[in-house]
Amino acid sequence: MAKITENLQFINEKIKQAKNRSEKKQDVTVIAVTKQVTTERAFEAIEAGLIHLGENRPEGLLAKKSEINNQAKWHYIGSLQSRKVKQVINEIDYLHSLDRFSLAEEIDKRAQKTINCFVQANVSGEESKHGLNRDEVIPFIESLAEFEHIRIVGLMTMAPNTEDEEIIRNVFRELKNLQQEVVKLNLPFAPCQELSMGMSNDYEIAVEEGATFVRIGTALVG
Ligand SMILES: *Cc1c(COP(=O)(O)O)cnc(C)c1O
Description:
This protein has 8 helices and 8 strands. By secondary structure, the protein is of the alpha/beta class. It has a single domain, classed as Alanine racemase (TIM Barrel). It has an 8-stranded parallel beta sheet. Strand 1, helix 2 and strand 2 form a beta-alpha-beta unit. Pyridoxal-5'-phosphate (PLP) binds next to strand 8. This is Pyridoxal phosphate homeostasis protein. GO terms for molecular function: pyridoxal phosphate binding. InterPro entries: Ala_racemase_N, PLP-binding_barrel, PyrdxlP_homeostasis. Keywords: Coiled coil, Pyridoxal phosphate.
């Protein structure tokens, strides 16, 4: 396996170039997605200077957190079953997969602090993907006003599985447009300044289109 420090250097350089190309100035935070690697490997990520770790299963998150704990910020990036909310919700710093009202209800009931959430959108409309359709996102966010523990920090999406860069770029661009629309609503519980988009194969495009969090597994720790 390649050294994480070297992978990170390479990725940081690519992110810098992507920002230069697009003349964008946003801060980009790299989330090391450690779902497929050991706790030991996740520790190497911390040693390489990464702070943000992403997991997509309650078991994986809790196992790693029990050893790494507050040396990392914890991102839950997978779809979350309502019955698993109580296991993880007070253990994480960000949830990237808020996609339904019943989940919001359960989070609000179990949370002992404000939970930073991304609303997951399925902009590409692919059947296999989780997330709300484009048109559902704003009504959904407006419906969350009653929940005192939920803060909508941004939107999240996954690009479709395709080699076609223009299709990927359009998905990211649409998410950015949607985020701007949410910002304009001026909702106190939904500042929505962040965009969680871009993975190993498409993070450069995502950064060009305004990503502020990229979620990278294979190319970084894999
Ligand atoms: C696994 C996963 C990633 C990372 O994918 P890579 O292609 O390994 O970089 C990012 N986001 C989500 C939601 C994931 O499940």
